[in-house]
Each structure stands twice: as C-alpha cells, then as structure tokens.
Design brief:
Length: 283
C-alpha cells in the first residue's frame, strides 16, 4: 500500500458531510475520500484506494443508521476503532436569505428527524434528500432564497452558504457513533485500556434460545453495551442479532460467555475487537 493510500480514509457522502467532519476530527492528518454509497466506501478499502472507512452506526436521537447492520457483516472489513461525533445541525441558506422567508429545508432523513421539533416550530417543511452535504450543494446551485438545507458548518464553508439558525438539533446530546473499518483486524491489548468486541449471531429456532444464548454473559459478568435484532432476507422467522460487549475474547470470562453463546446459536461472527473510545467514560 503506497503512502497516499495509507493516509486515506473513505466516507459515504459528499464533502461537508458529517462523516467527513468525523474523519477530520478522528484522523486530522489523513485525506478524506468521499464515496457515493456505503458499498462504494467499502470497495475503496478493498481496492486499495483507502486504508480505512468511517462508518456511521447509530445516533443518540434517531437511532440505527438504516441498512448499516445488514451491510457490516458482508462488507469483508473488520472494525478497528470507534468514534463518537457530536452533531450540531445548522440551518443553511443562500447569501442574502432571511430566516423568516424560509419555507422548506432539505436534508438526510436522519438529520431532519433530529431537528423535527425545531423545524415545526419555525413553520419549515422538511424535504428528504439523499444526504446532508448534498442538500447544501444543491441549494447553493439553485440559489433559492425560500429554501434551506440542514447540514454541518463544514458544508456551509465549502458551499458558501449562510447559517440562518445554528444548533438546530432538538436534543443537546445529539451524537453519532461511527466505527472505523479496515481490511485486516487488530488485536489490542486489554491491559492498555477498555476493549469492545462487536459480533453478529443467529440463535437456534427453539424456545428461550435467546435467553439461554445470552445467559453466559450474565453468569460471567460480561456487560452487553448494545443488542439489536433485525430481519434477514425478508423472513419474519429469520433474525440476526448485532451486539457490542465490554472485553476481549481472550479474557477468560468473555471467552466462557462466547462459548455459551455459540452453543445456543447457529452462527457467531466477530466483526471486530478494538479499543473503546474515551467518549464512553463520559456516560
């Protein structure tokens, strides 16, 4: 891998997206590579155009990022880190626009949901767009003084837009969790700090299978920080679970918990073992 690729991190979206902002915050010395879709972002790493990928997982207000849990297990990449990005949405308008004249605001559906109450109080109609920064770019091109975009301060800077109302998000805790992915897994030393292990699993189709599968985490004192289910292949009877736990698989209690999980599951696949973000210590 050449020096340029080794110093490149891919993200989904266009310049000015919150994923772009996260790349800057977490890896300020790396070059951020915009990609049209999550699939293109993963491909950039597989094809050697980028060393890392910055992948949004969930938001503290809007919840899970749509489709991402389906894409992660099949991405062929490994989680090697995590980043928590505080999200401050800005209501952006073209130069000369006034807040009182704004009728519509375009943005990604997650951003709009995070600003739902404030948009309603301003009497502004939300309009769904493919992404936040793309909405800002389109607005700058149209020049419509009655329209706005909900996007980042970085997007305002890139597309020469005015901030008509800062910090538009409804909740002051509005934060998005990202995972950093690479072609090769890492094996961090638990003696150097807290570790997160992420994995997916499918339970056997028997009564109390999930209860029994997770029992090992309770009896071994292993903390599950996230557990989420989602349907597979459109079948209501076919469910996969995504989980994050505290600890390293080589630690005795974690190993015992995972062994019990495997006994009651049809498949367990570890997506990554990586250092926990210091942001978790603030919770």
């Amino acid at each position: 891998m050449n020096a340029a690729v080794n110093n490149t991190i891919a993200f989904q979206g266009v310049p000015g997206a919150y994923s772009n902002l996260s790349c800057r915050a977490a890896f300020p010395d790396m070059t951020a590579l915009p990609c049209p879709s999550f699939e293109d972002m993963f491909a950039a790493v597989h094809e050697g155009r980028a060393r890392l990928a910055m992948v949004p997982i969930e938001n503290s207000v809007a919840g899970r990022v749509a489709d991402i849990h389906h894409l992660l297990p099949d991405s062929g990449l490994h989680i090697v880190g995590e980043h928590f990005q505080r999200v401050n949405h800005q209501l952006l308008g073209v130069r000369g626009a006034k807040l009182a004249d704004i009728k519509t605001a375009s943005s990604h559906i997650q951003a709009l949901s995070q600003c739902r109450n404030n948009l309603r109080s301003l009497g502004i109609k939300p309009v769904v767009h493919a992404d936040t920064a793309g909405a800002a770019a389109d607005l700058a091109q149209r020049g419509d003084k009655t329209a706005a975009a909900v996007a980042s301060s970085l997007a305002a800077e890139i597309y020469d837009l005015e901030v008509l109302k800062p910090d538009l998000e409804d909740a002051p805790h509005n934060t998005t969790r990202f995972v950093v992915m690479a072609q090769e897994p890492i094996d961090p030393d638990p003696a150097k700090g807290p570790i997160i292990t992420s994995f997916v699993f499918k339970v056997r189709s028997v009564p109390a299978a999930l209860y029994k599968a997770l029992g090992g985490f309770a009896t071994n004192g292993v903390n599950i920080t996230k557990l989420e289910s989602y349907m597979l292949d459109g079948h209501f009877s076919s469910t996969q679970f995504y989980a994050d736990i505290d600890g390293h698989p080589d630690q005795r209690l974690v190993r015992l918990a995972l062994e019990e999980l495997s006994f009651f599951s049809r498949e367990v696949r570890i997506l990554g073992v990586y250092p926990a973000s210091k942001f978790r210590q603030q919770d």
